[in-house]
Specification:
five-stranded mixed β-sheet, globular, Heat Shock Protein 90, 22 helices, Methyltransferase, Cobalt-precorrin-4 Transmethylase, Domain 2, Arc Repressor Mutant, subunit A, 36% helix, alpha+beta, 23 strands
Length: 627
């Protein structure tokens, strides 16, 4: 394939949206910062670098690259120079010269893949501790020494949970946990040969006890202690002092009730993984949104009754076996009325594409994985995420999403129990486009429903909701644009998509009522702002009334209301909290940070996100100034 292609702004340049794209001018030749961004993309989720494009006020301006073939050759020469960059991840197809014939200029497009765990850290120069970068929403940042060491730890052929713990023995185990495990094991596999082994033999088979043939050492492994150990021993400085487990239910209607139920390391039970797993599975067995509880077999043990319960079991086990137990924060499961969130310390060992494909298994703690498999839980074939997605699709719920964050490293799997086809949305989509629209794919329907309920949909928003690559999301959005179902606003990273078709005829609201949710949810963020001053403060309170008085407000309504409130002036999270009657933490983590990442809110102090006087204002229409 020729490395030179013709540029089509719609089919080529606009495919790349969001934080995984970087523009660099290259007017004076290959920019020195190229390799920092290369390192950052390789150590994160991958990304695309455009040379010959400057960015002004969030809008890309095409300048072109002089001598593009020379630049392309220089990129490959430096990528193969280990004094410059530690690994060359580029193929011939990864670096393309793209021609814009109307302007007689060229761009260079570099697609940087995510590095494998054995290639990370990818670093600039010979020193990984000074030359390793990663990507976050603010751009490239230099990794801390601790982050680099964790990447090296993930490279190792010795699994994280396979290390022999010196100074620990069977007196550090919780005997009842091991006994209960045997009983559960025998129910799942009643004729298994390992059941005749004594405790040492069983742990050897499971990977909870190990003998090192070279050194002659033997003893409990990290996996054995984590699964069956006493909490005090697990949290010993010689084992996993940061060990933490937390299950939190937030099902109360009143915002004053912080938890409706909680399972955490509070001293009322022996805090190891097996005991936590048993207790959490009981709590996940029933409750709001679950149509049928777990059934029990003849031995009294629970067995999954529905694909949803199997998906929840898979999600819980995934969090436990993929966690980096030397990391910060521990394993945390949050249950809300409308979703489950499974969060664990560590990074993804596979790319998103590999997770979607399935069939590839990379586990940080393979011994723990084996232990849960003996309980009939966990999937070794690498299809766990696919199984969860299919279960959710059967319920016509919004697709599960995976988010990876840094500082500290964490992975979060969110399972929303929100219909992709709420009755009101079905009626409106049918009114606008006809019943044929409901035959679109589940992901396309999700994009349309989001645009309908939240007033706008972006690539970044869908990355939070769908397990799809950003380029595939853009192709999907462009297909919906071509079919007249969405209409774009802005360009590339600033592109927002509004629902196509004709809007509904809005009946006037009664004079004594606040505007109805569809008015707020469908209002674009660049509407005329309320007045400022005393009357303006009253106007802000009036805008926030409906959310403030609702115990549980739809997420789309909250997002739209925040955008309306911030269209008047910069507002802090504390001010939004007082207006909306929500905790600052809920608004910051659940809404404001995401709206800022999507480019819908601008920061008063963009260079310091944690500034004590940070505040947010709705961006002006991003299509302005893009000409």
């Amino acid at each position: 394939m020729s490395p030179t292609q013709q540029l089509s702004l719609f089919d080529e340049f606009s495919l790349y949206e969001g934080v995984d794209v970087e523009y660099k001018s290259a007017a004076g030749g290959l920019p020195a910062s190229l390799w920092e961004t290369y390192s950052a993309f390789a150590n994160s989720g991958g990304g695309t670098i455009w040379l010959g494009v400057a960015e002004k006020n969030g809008v890309p301006v095409v300048q072109g690259v002089p001598e593009p073939q020379k630049i392309r050759a220089e990129i490959f020469n430096l990528a193969n120079n280990r004094q410059k960059i530690s690994a060359n991840l580029l193929s011939e197809e990864s670096v393309r010269v793209i021609e814009d014939p109307s302007e007689r200029r060229h761009l260079v497009c570099i697609v940087v893949p995510r590095a494998s765990r054995r290639e990370r850290p990818v670093h600039v120069g010979p020193n990984p501790f000074s030359g390793t970068y990663r990507r976050n929403h603010d751009g490239d940042y230099r990794c801390t020494d601790d982050e680099v060491r964790r990447m090296f730890a993930d490279q190792s052929d010795e699994p994280a949970d396979g290390r022999i713990l010196e100074g620990f023995g069977f007196n550090d185990l919780h005997a009842e946990s091991l006994r209960q495990f045997r009983a559960r094991f025998s129910v799942s596999f009643p004729n298994h040969a390992w059941l005749v082994e004594d405790d040492v033999g069983l742990l050897l088979r499971l990977g909870g006890f190990r003998r090192d043939r070279q050194s002659g050492k033997e003893g409990l492994t990290v996996a054995g202690l984590l699964m069956f150990g006493q909490e005090l021993a697990i949290r010993d400085p010689g084992a996993r002092p940061r060990f933490h487990l937390d299950y939190r239910e937030r099902l109360a209607d009143s915002p004053d009730v912080r938890w409706s139920d909680r399972i955490t390391l509070d001293g009322t039970w022996e805090g190891n993984l097996f005991q936590f797993y048993q207790r959490v599975m009981v709590s996940l067995s029933a409750g709001p949104g679950l149509r049928r509880p777990f059934q029990r077999d003849e031995e009294g043990y629970r067995r999954s009754a529905t694909p949803v319960h199997e998906a929840l079991q898979e999600a819980l086990v995934n969090a436990l076996i993929h966690a980096d137990y030397s990391g910060q924060g521990g394993v945390v499961i949050d249950r809300y009325l409308d979703r489950f969130e499974f969060s664990n310390p560590g990074t993804l060992l596979l790319s998103r594409a590999q997770l979607l494909q399935g069939g590839v298994s990379e586990c940080r703690n393979p011994a723990l994985q084996k232990m849960f498999q003996m309980l009939g839980a966990g999937d070794k074939a690498g299809s766990g995420i696919d199984k969860i997605r299919k279960s959710w699709q059967e319920q016509r719920w919004q697709s599960p999403s995976i988010a990876e964050t840094t500082s500290p490293d964490r992975v979060q799997l969110t399972l929303p129990m929100v219909s992709t086809l709420p009755e009101e949305a079905v009626t409106e989509l049918d009114r606008r486009f006809g019943q044929g629209v409901l035959a679109r794919t589940g992901d396309e329907i999700q994009a349309l429903v989001t645009a309908l309920e939240e007033g706008v949909v972006t690539n970044q928003r869908l990355q939070d909701m769908l397990v799809m690559h950003s380029v595939d999301i853009t192709r999907m959005l462009q297909g919906l644009v071509r079919d007249g179902l969405l209409r774009p606003e802005g360009r590339t990273r600033g592109t927002r998509y509004l629902l196509g078709g004709s809007p509904p005829d809005l009946a006037p609201s009664p004079p004594d009522l606040a505007p109805s949710p569809p008015d707020l949810a469908s209002s674009p963020p660049d509407l005329a702002p309320p007045e400022t001053g005393d009357d303006g403060d009253r106007a802000l309170l009036d805008l926030a009334t409906r959310v403030r008085e609702m115990g549980k407000a739809p997420a789309g309504l909250v997002r739209a209301t925040i955008l309306r409130l911030c269209s008047a002036r910069f507002l802090s999270v504390r001010e939004l909290s007082e207006l909306l009657g929500r905790t600052p933490e809920t608004l910051r983590d659940g809404y404001v940070a995401k709206l800022a990442d999507e480019g819908l809110l601008e920061l008063r102090y963009p260079d310091n996100r944690s500034h004590p006087e940070q505040a947010y204002r709705t961006r002006v229409n991003l299509s302005e100034g893009s000409a």
